[in-house]
C-alpha cells in the first residue's frame, strides 16, 4: 500500500500547502490501521496527526512525514518517500505497542520546502510530551543524522522621498542609498562572523526608474548559524546595519521577518548511534558520517524541544544524482528506492522499539538532550 502511495504522489506532485491528495492518502492509510487521525492540524488544510495509544504507560514516539513537491521538479527531494517511511514505521511500531506500552504519533507537516509546517506544530505545542522524533530522508548514500543551520529571514524596507533625479535631486531622500549603505555594512560584517555562519541576500525592490530618486526599496537577507544562540546575536548585528543605512541617508526603515525562521538541527547522537546499530545488525548497512551542510530545515525546530534525528537513506546507488533534480525524482520510483525505503522504515520502528523496551536507553537519550548546547 505504501508503495502505491509513493508512486501516486510521484505521478501527482503537489506544492506546499496544496498536498490534498497526499494528505488524504496518508490519513486514510493510518485510519485503516487503527490510528486516530486529526485533520487540518494547526489550521493547515493538509496538516494531520495520527495517534495510536494502547493506554499502557510508556514513552511517546513521533515519526514525521513530509509530502510537498518542488515547482517543475516534482518530488525531486523525495518527500513521497519521507511520508511513506513515516507511515510504515508508525504502523510497524503500533503492532508491538501492546507488549511494550507507550504511544506513537505520525505527524504530517506541510510545506517543508517553503514555510515549514513543523515550525507551527512546535509553536502550537504539538511536540509537548514527545520523547523522541525520527524522520528519514532519501539521498544518494546512507549516512548518519547531521546538523543544519538555524535560519532567520531579515527584511529591510526603506522609505525616503521621491524627486526628479536630474532637476531636483536635493529634494529627494534616496531609499536606494539606504539599501546600498546597509549592504556595504553587511559585507564588512561578513569578515568578522564565525566560519559556520552565512549571510546572503538580494535587493527585492530597488526603485522604478533611473530618473526618479527612489522613495522605497526592499532588501532581504537569510542569516544562518549552527547554533540558535549565536544566530540571535548575529541577526541583531545585521539589523544594526539596516538601522545605520537609514540613519546615514535620512530614510525610515521597517525591519521584519519575511519568511518562517528555522532553528538549527540538533542531532541526538545517542539515538543516532542506536539507529546505526539497528541498520547494521539487520541489513548489514554501514552509515557514513554526516556530510557538512549549510542548509536549513524545519526539523531543527523539533530537535530543540525533543530528541530528534534525520538519517539519510540511499535511493540512487549513484552519488552523482543530487537532491532537487529531476533525476532524484525519477529515482524515487525504482525497485532499489522501494527496498531502501522499506529498510529505513523498519529501522525507524526497531530503533523506537528498543528505546521503549529499555528505560536506561531513554534516560541516556534525554540526558544528552538536556545537556546539549542549543
TrEMBL record:
<feature type="domain" description="Peptidase M20 dimerisation">
    <location>
        <begin position="156"/>
        <end position="240"/>
    </location>
</feature>
<dbReference type="Pfam" id="PF07687">
    <property type="entry name" value="M20_dimer"/>
</dbReference>
<protein>
    <recommendedName>
        <fullName>Peptidase M20 domain-containing protein 2</fullName>
    </recommendedName>
</protein>
<dbReference type="GO" id="GO:0046657">
    <property type="term" value="P:folic acid catabolic process"/>
</dbReference>
<dbReference type="InterPro" id="IPR011650">
    <property type="entry name" value="Peptidase_M20_dimer"/>
</dbReference>
<dbReference type="InterPro" id="IPR017439">
    <property type="entry name" value="Amidohydrolase"/>
</dbReference>
<dbReference type="Pfam" id="PF01546">
    <property type="entry name" value="Peptidase_M20"/>
</dbReference>
<comment type="similarity">
    <text>Belongs to the peptidase M20A family.</text>
</comment>
<dbReference type="GO" id="GO:0071713">
    <property type="term" value="F:para-aminobenzoyl-glutamate hydrolase activity"/>
</dbReference>
<dbReference type="GO" id="GO:0016805">
    <property type="term" value="F:dipeptidase activity"/>
</dbReference>
<dbReference type="InterPro" id="IPR002933">
    <property type="entry name" value="Peptidase_M20"/>
</dbReference>
<dbReference type="InterPro" id="IPR052030">
    <property type="entry name" value="Peptidase_M20/M20A_hydrolases"/>
</dbReference>
<dbReference type="GO" id="GO:0005737">
    <property type="term" value="C:cytoplasm"/>
</dbReference>
<dbReference type="InterPro" id="IPR036264">
    <property type="entry name" value="Bact_exopeptidase_dim_dom"/>
</dbReference>
<dbReference type="InterPro" id="IPR017144">
    <property type="entry name" value="Xaa-Arg_dipeptidase"/>
</dbReference>
Amino acid at each position: 500500500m505504501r508503495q502505491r502511495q509513493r508512486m501516486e504522489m510521484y505521478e501527482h506532485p503537489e506544492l506546499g500547502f496544496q498536498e490534498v491528495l497526499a494528505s488524504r492518502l496518508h490519513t486514510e492509510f493510518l485510519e485503516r490501521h487503527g490510528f486516530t487521525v486529526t485533520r487540518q492540524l494547526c489550521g493547515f488544510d493538509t496538516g494531520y496527526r495520527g495517534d495510536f495509544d494502547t493506554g499502557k504507560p510508556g514513552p511517546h514516539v513521533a515519526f514525521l512525514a513530509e509530502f510537498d513537491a518542488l515547482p517543475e521538479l516534482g518530488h525531486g527531494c523525495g518527500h513521497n518517500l519521507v511520508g511513506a517511511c513515516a507511515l510504515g514505521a508508525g504502523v510497524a511500531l503500533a503492532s508491538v505497542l501492546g507488549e511494550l506500552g507507550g504511544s506513537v504519533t505520525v505527524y504530517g507537516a506541510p510545506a517543508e520546502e517553503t514555510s515549514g509546517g513543523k515550525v507551527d506544530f512546535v509553536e502550537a505545542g504539538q511536540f509537548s510530551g514527545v520523547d523522541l522524533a525520527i524522520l528519514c530522508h532519501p539521498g544518494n548514500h546512507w549516512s548518519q543524522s547531521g546538523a543544519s543551520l538555524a535560519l532567520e529571514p531579515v527584511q529591510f524596507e526603506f522609505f525616503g522621498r521621491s524627486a526628479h533625479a536630474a532637476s531636483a535631486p536635493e529634494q529627494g531622500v534616496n531609499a536606494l542609498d539606504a539599501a546600498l549603505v546597509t549592504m556595504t555594512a553587511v559585507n564588512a560584517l561578513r569578515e568578522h562572523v564565525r566560519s559556520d555562519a552565512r549571510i546572503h541576500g538580494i535587493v527585492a525592490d530597488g526603485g522604478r526608474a533611473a530618473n526618479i530618486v527612489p522613495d522605497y526599496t526592499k532588501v532581504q537577507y537569510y542569516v544562518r548559524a549552527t547554533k540558535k544562540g549565536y544566530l540571535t546575536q548575529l541577526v541583531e548585528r545585521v539589523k544594526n546595519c539596516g538601522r545605520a543605512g537609514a540613519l546615514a541617508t535620512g530614510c525610515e526603515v521597517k525591519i521584519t521577518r519575511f519568511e518562517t525562521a528555522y532553528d538549527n538541527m540538533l542531532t541526538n547522537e545517542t539515538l543516532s548511534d542506536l539507529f546505526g546499530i539497528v541498520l547494521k545488525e539487520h541489513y548489514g548497512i554501514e552509515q557514513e558520517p554526516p556530510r557538512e551542510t549549510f542548509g536549513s530545515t524545519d526539523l531543527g525546530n523539533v530537535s530543540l524541544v525533543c530528541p530528534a534525528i534525520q538519517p539519510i537513506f540511499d535511493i540512487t546507488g549513484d552519488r552523482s544524482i543530487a537532491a532537487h533534480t529531476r533525476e532524484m525524482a525519477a529515482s524515487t520510483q525504482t525497485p532499489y528506492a522501494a527496498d531502501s525505503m522499506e529498510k529505513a522504515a523498519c529501522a525507524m520502528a526497531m530503533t523506537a522499539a528498543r528505546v521503549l523496551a529499555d528505560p536506561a536507553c531513554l534516560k541516556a537519550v534525554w540526558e544528552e538532550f538536556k545537556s546539549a548546547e542549543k
